[in-house]
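Example record used in the benchmark description.
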Amino acid sequence: MAFADNHVGLTQDDEFSGMHTALTLQPQMADPATSTTQIAIYNKLVGGIPEMFFRPRANQTPIQMTYPSIKADLTTTQYSFVAGPFIIYGGKITNPTQGQTVTLTPGTTLIFVDLIIANSNTLPNQIAMAIPTNIAGTSFDIRYHAVITSNFDVYYYAVGI
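Model output (structure tokens):
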């Protein structure tokens, strides 16, 4: 009966028979050991928050795969990870102030930032447009043009190295 949880039924007659539908990882107290022929993907608490980790073979340094990108409050926390030299960030900030500074983590050097305003109302004949300014290290400022007369969201996409 336990197999029925988080699995496609064994009697289903297709290529998905018996496969997982969800994977639950209980937090580990320490990084698991890996041999020269093993890797590990696991959950570990970081500051009391569960985060996903990858440990390469032969006990190489673990790589954290999830990061809270913005720590201003719970409504703006987003997660990012990409293997290789780049870190891709994506997220939403609700009702930012003009000139608000956004600092992303983990620390990188930003090489690209794009902003889009959504869910906004403006005065007649105006177009809501946001641009990132003062891009330095892991931070950028949000500047927007037009008089926005309602609550609005700014979505960001950034790349760091």
